[in-house]
Structure formats: C-alpha cells, structure tokens
Amino acid sequence: MIWLALVTVICIAAVDTNSLRQASRHEITVYAALVVLALAMSSLVSWHLWSDVHLIAPFDAMFGSMTKWLYEIL
Amino acid sequence: MSKVQISRYQITLALIWSVLGTGIVTAPFIINQFVIRDAWIALLLFTVGGLLSTTVAILFVRALPNRSLIGGLIDALGPWLGRVFGLWFLVWMYLVSCKTLREGTSFVGITILPQTPLYIIAFAGAIACSYAVYMGAEVVMRNGEFITPLAAIVAPALIALSMMHLDVHNLMPVLADGWQPVLRGAVTPDITYALELLIGLQFVPMLRNSRALPKDMIIVTGIITVVGTLLGVITIGVVGQSANYLSFPVLEVVREIRVGRNIERLDTLYILGVMSTILIKLSVFHYAWCEGMKDVFKLSSHRIVALSGGLLVWAGSIALFRSQLEVNNFMISVAPAYFVVTLVGIPLLAVLVMAFRKRSNR
Is residue B3 part of a domain? Predict the structure, then answer.
C-alpha cells in the first residue's frame, strides 16, 4: 500500500504542479500535511502496525458511553 | 471563475443518494441486530430524523443566509472559535468519507472481487471521486442526475420481481416484542443516516434557491422513508428470520429473483447501482470537505486539496476501519451520539449566538 501511496503522491503532485506554483506558502503547508498524513496511514497498514493502533478510539471514548445511554433510555 | 449554480433537482438527488448510497448496504444489517420482523417500522420512523434535520436546516438558513455550514460557523462564532468548530466538522466529514469508502470497498470485495486486495478497490473508488471533486460541484451533481434515470428503471423492476417471493407471514405478528427493539433498531437509520442530510448545508452558497433547501430535505425524507420501508418489508418478507445472519440482506433478496430459466443473477445490476450511489455519496462528502478546508484554511480553491485529500480518504478508509465489523461497530456504538452532538448541537449553538447578537444589536 505504501508503494501505491508514494506513486500516487508523485502523480498528483504532477497534476497539481500549476496550482502549487501559484499557491501561497500556507496552502503548500496544508497540501504537504495531507500528503504526509496519507503516507503515515499507508505505512501503518503496509508495515502491519494498524492492528495495534485503534485510530478511532478517541471517538469511541467520547461518544461510546453517550450512545450506550441513548440505547438504555429507549 | 463562474459561480456554481446547483438546481433544486440536483441537490435533492444528491441528498437522496447520499443517504441511500450506504444506507441500503449497512443499515439493514444494523437494524436486524435489534429487530427483524418489525424492521420496516424502524425505517418508517426515518421521518422523525428527517424532520429533525430539516428543523436544524431551517434555523441555520434563517440565521445565516447564503452561508455554508463551516462558513456560517466562522461567521457566528468568530475566526478562532469558528475555525475550531470548523475543524471538528472537517474531521466528521472526513470520517464519513472514510467510512463510506470502506463500506463500498467491503461490499465490492465480498460480492465481486474477493481475490483483489481491498486497498486496490478503495484506490479505484477514491481516484474516481477525487477526480469528480477536482472538476467541481457541477460534475459531482451531474453524477447523481446521470444515475437516477437508470435507477428509476432498474429499482422498480427489481422490487416488483422480488415481491414474487414475498411471504407476508414473515412479517407477522406485528410488534410482538413491543416497541423497544424497534426504537433501538431505529437509532442508526433514523438518527445517524437522517442527520447526514445536513451535509446539504455545506452546499448552500452554491444553490440557486438556498431558501428552498429545507423543502427539498422534506421531499428527500419522504422519498427515503417510502423506499426504505418498502425495502424493509420486501427484505424481511423474502429472507425472513435469516436476515439476522446476512451481511447484505438486500443483496440476498435480489439473488432470489429467478424468472423461468432465462432471467437470473440480477444481483449484478444491484451491485452496479450500489457502487454508483456509494461513489456519489463519497463525491458529495469529499466535495463538502474540500469546500470546508477552503473556508477553514483560507485556500484559494478547493482544487488544492481535492486530490491530496482523496489520497488521505483512501488511506484513512483502510487505516481507520480495519474491517467491516469495525464500521458496523462505529455506526452502532459511536455514530449516534457523535452525529447528534456534531450536526444538531454545533449548528444550533451558531444559531443561538446569531440570535443573541441580533438582540444585543437592537
């Protein structure tokens, strides 16, 4: 998955070349942040680290008990 | 660049497919974990959630006319706090996009491409949607317009043919176990999916007639309620109690269709339809996310994040939801409260702040 992600990053950078040339510094920062996050997630899957990392656990912790309460009152 | 103009017909179709896209795949399985015989009543109650969404939309559009959901939050709550809540919404839209792509990937993987790695299937979906978003709102909306005539021909035919196998006794007795399992089964379709209709608010600045959005949401609610209830009746009427063990009960209903010796395997049409509608939903949510990113990070165009954001959705669909079971667990155990807080609590907070501001200005 990480190889596919890397190839795609190069391809989309080529497609976005014109937009990125005209983009301001903070726009490039946002763009780079999204790409880095995507690569990080791809590497999590590729290197089999994802079975140890539960990325939506914070949402489970925040809203799991509220949802349970919702079911209980029904 | 000309201002995008989305017609009432286009936004209505986009909202219908945004709910039905994954609703037809995941919702029956989730409802059947709580209730089987009376699942159709849970779907009939979609009206309640749809009207709740419409009420929030009415209040928001009145308090913040011609403003998108995230743009309105920034206007109402100020540049800093507004952007914090805007980021919260961006995370919500991103999670829904990842969940949608994961549902589509699992569906395609299980039904037609069992030997293909899931990340390849997800990649194909993400690229298609990102390209549609890159091309603009008009392309996203026209996708919905394109699929609707096909669905209008295929869906009634499949429904009519499925009814040949319907056994009304599978639906009897009605409410034998009382209302509790029905209400619990109704939580996901009638709160989680119904609140997803509020994604329409993100498109308000692009609508030709933004004040008509709540009316369109009522029409969408009516259509989804009728279609959902009909599907609920047919699914349980055909499959019966075994619906509890099926991941995709509607697919099994379509697979039952056989007319003579010549007409069978119509599930291909159903799978094509589901894939198309899931991609429409993904495009709608990804476009809304890109427009939100534009507002929160002051980008010059949504195009800057259309492709890189699509890549992030692709990676997130696999990394965040490790299996379809995790998607189902998220939808049952986390999404109802998360969606209520995000889609009812935060917009109403913005409406209250605007009302307070107006009163203090007098």
Answer: no
As for how many domains chain B has, the answer is: 1
Cα distance between residue B284 and residue B144, in whole Å: 10
Identify the CA nearest to B22 among candidates B162, B193, B152: B193
Q: B336 contacts in A (CB within 8 Å)?
A: 63, 67, 70
Kindly state the tokens that stand for B67: 């403003």
Choose the closest CB to A41 out of B301, B316, B333: B316
Find the mean pLDDT for residues B149-162. Answer: 89
CATH number at residue B73: 1.20.1740.10
Name the amino acid, one letter, at B54: T
Q: Which domain holds residue B280?
A: 8-361
In a domain, B113, yes or no: yes
- The answer to whether residue B1 sits within a structural domain is no
Per-residue pLDDT of chain A (74 residues; tens, 9 = 90+): 899 999 999 999 999 888 888 889 999 999 999 999 999 999 999 988 877 788 899 999 999 999 999 999 98
Q: Are B286 and B199 in contact (CB under 8 A)?
A: no
Give the position of tokens 């890189």: B308
Instruction: Answer yes or no: is pLDDT of B275 > 60.
Output: yes
